[in-house]
Amino acid sequence: MRIRAHRRFVLLLGLALTMFTQSFETLHASPAASRVSAFKLANGLQVVVVPDHRAPVVTHYVWYRVGAADEPPGVSGIAHFLEHLMFKSTDKIPSGEFSKIVARLGGQDNAFTSHDVTAYFQRIAKDRLKTVMEMEADRMENLRLTENEVTNERAVILEERRSRTENNPSSILSEQMLASFYQNHPYRIPIIGWMHEMAKLSREDALTFYKRFYAPNNAIVVVAGDVTVDEARRLTEATYGPLKPNPAIQARVRPQEPPHRAPRRVELKDQRAGNFSLRRFYLAPSIPTAAEGEAEALYLLMKVVGHGSTSRLYQKLVVEEKLASSSGGWYSGTSLDSGTIGVHAVAAEGVGLDKVEAGIDRVLHEVREKGVTPDELERAKKAFIADFIYESDSQSALARRYGEGLLLGLTIEQINNWPVAIAKVTADDVKRAAAKHFDVRRSVTGTLIPVPPEAEGDAATKPAANKT
Amino acid sequence: MRIRAHRRFVLLLGLALTMFTQSFETLHASPAASRVSAFKLANGLQVVVVPDHRAPVVTHYVWYRVGAADEPPGVSGIAHFLEHLMFKSTDKIPSGEFSKIVARLGGQDNAFTSHDVTAYFQRIAKDRLKTVMEMEADRMENLRLTENEVTNERAVILEERRSRTENNPSSILSEQMLASFYQNHPYRIPIIGWMHEMAKLSREDALTFYKRFYAPNNAIVVVAGDVTVDEARRLTEATYGPLKPNPAIQARVRPQEPPHRAPRRVELKDQRAGNFSLRRFYLAPSIPTAAEGEAEALYLLMKVVGHGSTSRLYQKLVVEEKLASSSGGWYSGTSLDSGTIGVHAVAAEGVGLDKVEAGIDRVLHEVREKGVTPDELERAKKAFIADFIYESDSQSALARRYGEGLLLGLTIEQINNWPVAIAKVTADDVKRAAAKHFDVRRSVTGTLIPVPPEAEGDAATKPAANKT
Questions:
Q1: Per-residue confidence at A105, pLDDT binned at 50, 70, 90?
Q2: How far apart are CA B332 and CA B181, in angstroms?
Q3: Does B175 qualify as catalytic in the annotation?
Q4: Ranges under pLDDT 50 in chain B
Q5: In what order do the strands lie in the sheet with A219-225?
Q6: In this complex, do A364 and B179 lie within 8 Å of one another by their Cβ atoms?
Q7: For B62, left (φ over 0), alpha (ψ -120 to 50), or beta?
Q8: Is the pTM for the entire model greater than 0.95?
């Protein structure tokens, strides 16, 4: 039922686009951004209010500053498992009733877990806001778990891993690539967890994690919608105000990457693969770790190189050279400790992956050497505005943008100023970013090779690498 | 001054060979093994006595059940750093005097750190044994560290990393390969630590680690030499006996590997490389994790495949096909959680690494399909005996064998029975082990490519992989 960000790159990319494209527009066109307010309760809870009076509805988010990358070694998946278990009981809410109550109130709710955050949200009529705040405040402090609930829900997450990862060679390849890509950082570990560790997750693991990380001084509440700042202050004081802060909450310090010195390759042979395909990830800075303007340049670079059917990768590989049936690329900058650039292609019928890869390399080489044209840059910037116009209709996207921005350490002002920062990017900035960050030494390349079942275990010989 | 096991595979392989080859002989020829005794003090300290009365000297080892794989995330290198700092002061020993005192007593001392153990040892005249025991017992409980000592010694380990790793492309390649190879287990992390984490190691980090892991109930004392069991008991009671156990010591549980599904490749271009070379690691069971007889079969397999100039790899690649100037392989089974098989070759002048790799693959393919001959198996078994005869002259090797065996969870009897287990291995066992464990899906292949300095950063394009 709930959405979960296992495909971190894809989902976070989506959020990222949402974030700054919205900012761009709000600065110029939307009345909302200029009136975004933030305050803090005495117990440390941060509150952000994003007015949107188009309809008498609100979107209510609780963002916890904890995700899969904060898990202790050996209990991978516990952040996501706890997200599931948060829908069990408290003294006031019977087991499994949380979402049903929201539905009976006419609302929808959901939750997701990434490496950096765990978030819960409801969209509901404005006169029900206090009720869902009470419910979220209640489960922030009073979660109850029985052994039975834990056992049953563990079966659910194991099944989730089976259906989303184990049965999906593309997911397996990405998972194996990330395990090779990050040498020290917990971004290496899948958000849903390793199967053998998930199978052992216990009630005690969940409650330990809950008590350590779930507290008002480790959370951000975002209310977007038909609400004033005064109302929001009164409601949050009344509901979240009485919660006790956890004095043990600390700044998040996760092990960081050493220098990457050597390109890596991962090859997965799978009978279920369907097509020959190739993808590559490059380690890059993220919004919080980038130099000024660098993340913005990377977003624009990858818009030109990899976004949609007008992108360079698509035009070269699919349209002109007919090496690939699809190709593209992206930049994800919305992680706390590092970002990622990705490129990918599916080989055209009968074309070897070595030729496809050489085609990708030619595109990347050219942009490193010559950068992008003023025209391309202008179009990329405009594309963000267009994206924004589409996205700004979504109250939930507005709420996400501020919640995630604050989690990344940005101020409201910095979030609002994203479009200004994007507008400042020059073609030189983009060329410099390309030259610096398309560095194969900081990359992992993965290939997915369809084979007959018996050949999956044909394992004595070397990886076929680029020969298909 | 001190030896440290950064090159884990090489050193542990040496220890492993030592371990069971010695056992083989001692069972039949040496009077020592049959009289090996073990007892435990009330505070939990395990003591092993290995009589060797050929000369009035003793080798005294303290093995701590802690190594680099027990480090908390983010403080890589702390186990090894603490090993250095153990040579600072206590109330009784002035700073830096430990080794000098041993030397003045006519002895030698040293220490090393692996992923699984930290060990300290002295070789000394038998009438000085009590003194070195007092000194080891003293620093097990009373280590003092000043900020100054920590700062100075940190400069020493950083320099050690620079000279052993940073200046050595082969070490860098192995380090990058291991980071790709292990997906979840801390064996991924270099024993000496990542530079950026070593640079932050503090006095507090060292003392926290010390207090957590250094205690009599987390140590094994091995005394080999001119000593009786009664003497050893009296001496250990008098010196180590008064130490307090640490009730917080727990069984060692480290995060284990998920299934490996896709072969990995790592390519390092380095101007200092000298030669084109290739190596591959396969994940394998270790002595403690293997099925009965499996580790023994792997030792014999790799003796046939990779040990010395009569091995299959050397004969095929160097002598017959002239593809390589050297080639070989090994099995390392003396780690707690998993073992490793390694193969390697240096390309002959003008030969591409793709041809070298294909040559290795032919050798491995053949042994998977056809196994080893009765003759080869017999010679491999005999080689262990020959190794033993050479090694058994070393009192220190005797002490190591029992210390390490107990750390791996073996009983004295199991250690003594190694040669029997080796003798039982059949050609079928070896073939089965080859077929099962030469599985490229559980492997990482590394290539080292000498390039002109300017080409190290030639990083836009894909790894050259097998093309040289």
A1: very high
A2: 15
A3: no
A4: 1-31, 460-468
A5: A37-40, A46-51, A219-225, A57-64, A118-125, A108-113
A6: no
A7: beta
A8: no
